Amino acid sequence: AQKVTQAQTEISVVEKEDVTLDCVYETRDTTYYLFWYKQPPSGELVFLIRRNSFDEQNEISGRYSWNFQKSTSSFNFTITASQVVDSAVYFCALSEAWNTDKLIFGTGTRLQVFP
Amino acid sequence: DGGITQSPKYLFRKEGQNVTLSCEQNLNHDAMYWYRQDPGQGLRLIYYSQIVNDFQKGDIAEGYSVSREKKESFPLTVTSAQKNPTAFYLCASSLQDRRDTEAFFGQGTRLTVV
User: Fold this and answer.
1) How does the average pLDDT of chain B come out, rounded?
2) pLDDT of residue B99
């Protein structure tokens, strides 16, 4: 069965701290796609990254980095030197190659960054 | 600017009434989706459409209906048959082949049954 688990419901940090958001997924498919979305208070989901299952290279984009490890079925997201503007709910999601129209979302992690 | 527009942002409905949520996109995307978000839960797929005049049920389609008469528009009707309609509704669109692209989301409509 397909499933995405974000065990951290809420995380609070102080500005400039590093923070890692965990994402563990389950799938039987060998080809799949992983996503991270940010949901700020305004409500819309903002796309952050997409990874396919054949690309295990970690990615860095400014203060954001992602660690994809197939051996542990994890796709963790790290924010370095967090800022107040990073406060949002972050969702990890999975889609499988045979059904790419279906995005399976985790329950989200609410990140609060305090000044 | 290209994007997805959902309206209204807030909607109140009396029990027993149908209500329609609007979703329009000018991204020239073939595929459009409706998701429901409840507190503490992830997004769940209600309906999706890959092409005009065609749509498929998602995981929680009961009590909802959609139409796709135009590429740009994918309205969602919450019917009186939906037992617990109070939620945040998000519309999304993407290129048809989702393997190489991500979905873009609107700003959502918060529906409250009073």
Assistant:
1) 91
2) 59
Tell me: the pLDDT tens digits for A21-72? 999 999 999 999 999 999 999 899 999 999 989 988 888 899 999 999 999 9
Taking the C-alpha atoms of residue A9 and residue A111, their distance in angstroms, rounded to an integer, is 9
Distance CA B72, CA A69 (A): 38
How far apart are alpha carbons B18 and B113 in whole angstroms? Answer: 11
- CB-nearest to B105 from A44, A50, A97 is A44
Q: Is B87 on the interface with A (CB under 8 A)?
A: no
pLDDT of residue B69: 97
CA distances B31 to A81, A92, B55, B95, Å, are: 37, 21, 9, 6
Measured between beta carbons, the chain B residues lying within 8 angstroms of A103 are 33, 43, 45, 103
Which single residue is written with the structure tokens 């860095």? A60
Cross-chain residue pair B105–A45, CB shorter than 8 Å: yes
Residue B89: pLDDT band (50, 70, 90) is very high
